Amino acid sequence: MVNTSKRTLDVTLFGQKYFSPLIQAPIGVQSIFNAEGEKGLAEVCSRLSIPYVLSTAGSNTIEEVASASNDGLRWFQLYWPSDDDITISLLRRARQSKFSVLVVTLDTWSAGWRPLDLDQGYLPLLNGIGTQIGFSDPVFRQKFKQMHKKEVEQDIPLASREWVKLILSDSPQPWERLSFLKKHWDGPIVAKGIQHPEDAKKAVQVGFDGIIVSNHGGRQLDGAVGSLTMLPSILDAVGTGTPVLFDSGLRTGADILKALCLGAHAVLIGRPTIYGYAAAGKDGAEEVIMGLLADLDRSMSMTGITGFGESHRSAIMPRPS
Ligand SMILES: Cc1cc2nc3c(=O)[nH]c(=O)nc-3n(C[C@H](O)[C@H](O)[C@H](O)COP(=O)(O)O)c2cc1C
């Protein structure tokens, strides 16, 4: 008999109010799902007031996506290049294009072993698809020309390999190097891909403004622990004061509600929107987002929850050990 007739999906992140806890996860190479690529999905997210996270592996440029997103909320995901000049250039472009939050992916310093893709030789990034952020970068272009005495467009396979070597370099940056990013980015910086309480504590200690608990959708390390399993202990380790976001495996409003009840401050949605986008273009993506929001809202009503300002962990039954 709790009055849930007035519900709000609002959340506050980094001092800013967001109309819902949903964020579009960074998904690389969106042109393989729809010819409009990142631009189409960014446009949908902008229309629905959902923050859009642009992947470094975008098939449109930073500037094109900013223009499609118009006055929408947009965050930039960094696959941290091994070349500092190029990193600085990417950050400068993202800031100039009004991307407000930097998401640094820490779980993928090299690509995972994917037998299905390897069997079929399916690696779009090595064929100039999903490399557009690099290919449009003035510093990358200049260095490529200096090294190979030709333009990127004259040898796409070589330029692709050079770009992929930079962003999936297999050389993790040490924690202390967050100071370098902070020097070149004046907004919040979020660590994506945290799966262990000790890493979460370290991320906060070195100065990340938020973390995303994620196992990359289980797409990189085979057999990685489920992210939801780790969420409570990571929240306990981090304590209050640092936003903890969550992704990997959320498919329904009830799924989202469980993550929020456990204590996540917001959630990222990856494949559901992409499936909608691939199946039915912008209308399909919009349908998925609207459905998730409606489902979340209805699930709140079912659970007796009117908002996310306070903890609802007691609404979740612990898993019997
Ligand atoms: C096709 C595909 C491409 C992805 N590309 C990126 C990427 O470029 N950068 C990144 O940080 N995460 C990437 N991810 C991971 C997502 O951001 C997210 O962590 C993951 O999909 C979990 O959410 P989901 O279960 O809702 O899909 C990708 C995921 C998919 C499915």
From TrEMBL:
Binding site for FMN: 26-28, 55, 77, 105, 192, 214, 247-251, 270-271
Protein name as it appears in the record: FMN hydroxy acid dehydrogenase domain-containing protein
Classification via SUPFAM superfamilies: FMN-linked oxidoreductases
Organism this protein belongs to: Orbilia ellipsospora
Required co-factors: FMN
UniProt cross-references to Pfam families, sorted A to Z: FMN_dh
UniProt record similarity statement: Belongs to the FMN-dependent alpha-hydroxy acid dehydrogenase family.
A Gene Ontology molecular function term of the record: FMN binding
Active-site residues, record numbering mapped to chain: H216
Limits of the FMN hydroxy acid dehydrogenase domain: 1-321
Binding site for glyoxylate: Y79, R114, H216, R219
Keywords on record: Flavoprotein, FMN, Oxidoreductase
